[in-house]
Amino acid sequence: MKLLATALLVVAAIVFVFARVREDQSSGWGYVRATAEAAMVGALADWFAVTALFRHPLGLPIPHTAIIKKRKDQIGESMGSFVRDNFLSRQVVTERLAEAEMGARVGVWLSNPEHARAVGEQSAAVVRGVTEVMKDETVQRGLDDVISNRVRAIPVAPFVGRAVDEAVAGEHHQMLLDATFNGLATFLSDNQKTLRAKLYNESPWWVPEQVDDVVFDKIYDVAMRFIAEVGEQRDHPLRADLEDRAIDLAEQLKSNPELIERGERLKDELLAHPEVRAWSASLWDRLKAGLIQAAEDPDSELRRRLTDALVDAGVAIQSDPKLRAQIDRWITDATGYVAEQFRGEIASLIATTVQGWDADETADLFELQVGRDLQFIRINGTIVGGLAGLVIHTVSELVL
């Protein structure tokens, strides 16, 4: 465009010279000469005006030239103020978002499974980024404090007492008793020979071995039958006695100060145990690794559930006008608040960014953006100047 505008100036100069030489031969050449002369004046004037915006014409330090270079900082401030006042006011933002119907758009976008999966894919980057930014030592200490404080806040003895009450009320203790007696019967059966040898070693030397066998068999048989009887009969007196003792123990755990204090000491010892401390310290490492692995695996349960939840949310938004309106209000209020609170910072960011640019590079940048249209000013100046010169010459010839 610069070449084209300059070429028109050169053409006007050539025509001027040619017409000036032949002007004495015919009055018609005077009109051509006046047109070309005025075209050159218009072209030169507009060239000077356009060039003066970005640099000194011909390198001469003429006042009020190289305007963009000299006023770069003021231009940056003006740009920031313009954006702040015309684009970042709460009224402008809320009006535009109200017209956009963001709630409906969110619903349509999320209801597409491909979009929901895309959100799931981005979750891996988010999870990894968040976990990498967080300091492991700080998080581990925080988790350890949360777990310890939570455990310490619960009195262990009353908690166990209430658990026993719940177990008895739901007859869960019967299953425990069944397992206990079955285990006891199995233990006696598996260790029959060991117990027989123990009786033989403890029996007086003068008691015949046959008598020891009879006594042992009798005791063993009675014990096995008794265990089987208690194990099979839910209403056995021994079971009832154990149940009463469990209920009494539960009441003692909930109300006896000595047992409560003993439970707290036991809890403190447990929390201070090296194995427990090591477990809590490694909890964050395992949790972080599990989160990252689940987030990055497309086939993980976490990713599938997240995708399904997003699709369901999109469908729900589409079918619920109240929910769409609520989302519109959330987005509008949040964006309006951000625009209102940070409009000054955004304007300052624009201003300081422009101030940090190199003056020559800034002028070149502006010229690349608007220079094409400015060259049309030179072209139009050449044409309009020529027409003006033709009109002026014609009027002068007719009047004078």
What are the salient characteristics of this protein?
rod-shaped, mainly alpha, 18 helices, 400 residues
Topology, please?
Layout: H1 2-22, H2 28-54, H3 67-70, H4 72-87, H5 90-100, H6 102-111, H7 113-133, H8 136-152, H9 156-169, H10 172-190, H11 192-202, H12 209-232, H13 237-255, H14 257-272, H15 274-296, H16 301-319, H17 321-355, H18 359-399
Helix pairs in contact: 1-2, 1-18, 2-18, 4-17, 5-17, 6-16, 6-17, 7-15, 7-16, 8-15, 9-13, 10-12, 11-12
Task: Describe the structure concisely.
The protein is mostly helical. The chain has 18 helices and no strands.
Walkthrough of the structure:
This protein is an all-alpha fold. It is 87% helix and 0% strand. It has helices at 2-22, 28-54, 67-70, 72-87, 90-100, 102-111, 113-133, 136-152, 156-169, 172-190, 192-202, 209-232, 237-255, 257-272, 274-296, 301-319, 321-355, 359-399. Helix 2 (28-54) packs antiparallel against helix 18 (359-399), helix 7 runs antiparallel to helix 15 (274-296) and helix 10 packs antiparallel against helix 12. The chain is rod-shaped, with a radius of gyration of 47 Å. It starts with a helix and ends with a helix. The model has no long low-confidence stretch (mean pLDDT 83).
